[in-house]
Design brief:
The complex is a heterodimer.
Chain A (H helix, E strand, L loop, with lengths): L2 H5 L39 H14 L2 H22 L4 H17 L10 H20 L19 H13 L3 H12 L4 H8 L3 H24 L4
Helix pairs in contact in A: 2-3, 3-4, 3-5, 4-5, 6-9, 7-9, 8-9
Chain B lengths: L9 H9 L8 H13 L17 H67 L6 H25 L4 H20 L13
Classes of the chains: A mainly alpha, B mainly alpha.
Amino acid sequence: MGSARRAGLPGSGASLSLAAMPDEHEPTFPPSGTTQGVHMRPTANPPADDRALAEALLSHGEERAFRELYRRHTPALYQVTLRLLGGSEADAQDVVQETWVRASLKLDGFRWESSLRTWLTGIAINRARELLRRRSRRPTVGLDAVPEPSAPPPPQLLRMDLERAIATLPDGSRMVLVLHDIEGFTHEEIGHRLGISPGTSKSQLFAARRALRTRLTRSQELPHA
Amino acid sequence: MHEHDDDLTPAEREAFRALPRERDPGQLLEERTVRALSEHGFFSAREPRTRRFTLHPAWVAAAAAAFVAVFLGGFTVGQELANRRASAMVLELRKQDAAQAAAMVQQTGSAYVAALSALADYARDPHARGNELASAREVATNSLHAAASELVRLSPEEPLAAQILRGLDQAARRDSLTGNGVNEQRKVAWF
């Protein structure tokens, strides 16, 4: 912990760049890749089912097929979007809706080289990142501004306040942490998605974890104060 | 090990793992999304498509031509029927006129012959006056000449009528020469 600050690495204090905006092409990283974090990569339903529904939607404009796809993938999309946006439900709903509209309009160009959910998640990440860039809701916090945590918080507090603590992270750090530690993306995948280098992704993850531990520790100390 | 790699503790890893992966955004978002896609025309195939009849210029021209053709056809047929009826009526009238004229000719001819017969009987009477006979004979001759002229006009190739006309003309020229070179004015009584 704190090695980045001591070494003075380029990623120290750098916020996540939201300038680069990759399009919603299919991801180039392997869908089955594992990460050093939690292996919770979005899993898709059998591709044939999604594909058949997509064909029905494209060929016949079947609203029922769309609703089936929507109900199948939206809860996961909504949850990850909600975390990426720091808990703003209204923003998350806007992003999910925009994701479905954009995905439906581009569905005929989807080559099914990855799962539909992976593709949808990529679109949602881009939409969320664009929304954050537009609003610049919170100023980014450098690593130097984050104090060193004294000790890891106990597990019960971690679980209780984790969602709230994640939501209070700076936008860039939060996106990297959510994608890496919760959704299971690798730094290469995150870098591709967010338009940053894998090294920057690692730095952001380091800053995010440190800030997260600090906030969780403070929340543990406050009730006893 | 990378200097940024600060692995999660088992408790942290477990805490992340325990976070929910799905969350229901509510029915309203689904309806909102469906409506947004409908506005993009995405579900138009589901709805019964109302076929629009666009008035193409060629279609309009063809319709107008067909209308004119039907109108003119009806007008022509109606006029033809009317003409046939009128022709038949005129023909019938002419037939009636010809019959009446023929009857009148027959009656007049009979009266003419009867009058000449009576005049001939009167000429044999010794008390008959010469002036009256001469006038009656001239009226009869003029009537015969007029009748022959109409008969020639009616039928130019009628030889009898033409011969009568020639004979009457020669007699008239002979009479005009016998009156001392003076062309006496005829007293013609036309009917």
